[in-house]
Amino acid sequence: MTRQPGPREGVVLGDPHVITFDGLGYTFNGKGEFCLVSSADRELSVQARTEEVKLKNGTLATRLSSVAMEEKASDVMEVRLAEGQLQVLKNQKVLPFTEQRWMDLQGVFVFAPGLQNVTVIFLSGVGVEVRLHQGFMAAAVLLPTQFTNHTQGLLGWMNSEPSDDLLTQRGEIISSADATPEEIFTFGAGWNISKESSLFTYDSKVPLG
């Protein structure tokens, strides 16, 4: 009996450390809004916003501050860091999770058991889990196997081959085996998204960078 492969996970955490769907790990300290994963033919977009922060020891770091996502005609969901806890927005409006822990919305299900953990699940089975730990957000994106060979962005090209995960927006592959920090930064910066394609909320509480 052949065992069917399960969902693949890509992760962003800390000062952002990235682990692609194929298991390649790298650090990208860019500040702004970036494509975590997109799939044009599957109509999926998951985006990350990062910001600069000063640590207790005075050093500067970059951290994940918000994740926004949509699939096909779903509601646009955003999970962001707000006053030391996670805040959930649907179509740029804050959702209150005081009365209930879950919401069944347009094309998407949201589960928020607490202010430190939010899970978003789309109809295709795509899942995005956002956690908050010691002031830093971490996001894990789980993709079903039908997304194999249909992804691009900071979380790589999902095809069980980590060596080609540094795939640029222009379709060029930077060899991960000998990529310099400068090449990795250039790769990451190339996945910066324009304000026109951004899914994020712009309001007085969120700096525009």
> What CATH architecture do you see?
3-Layer(aba) Sandwich
Number of contiguous helices: 1
Structural class: mainly beta
| Number of discrete domains | 1
CATH first level: Alpha Beta
Strand tally is: 14
- Beta percentage is 35-45%
Approximately how much helix is present in the residues? under 10%
Termini separation (Å)?
53 Å
Largest sheet data: 8 strands, antiparallel
State the strand order across the main sheet.
3-2-1-14-13-12-11-10
Q: Overall pLDDT, averaged?
A: 92
Q: Tell the overall outline.
A: globular
Rg from alpha-carbon coordinates:
17 Å
| CATH overall fold name | Protein Transport Mog1p, Chain A
H/E element string?
EEEEEEEEEEEEEEH
Low-confidence spans: pLDDT under 50, at least 5 residues?
none
Name the descriptors.
209 residues; mainly beta; Protein Transport Mog1p, Chain A; eight-stranded antiparallel β-sheet; six-stranded antiparallel β-sheet; 1 helix; 14 strands; 4% helix; globular
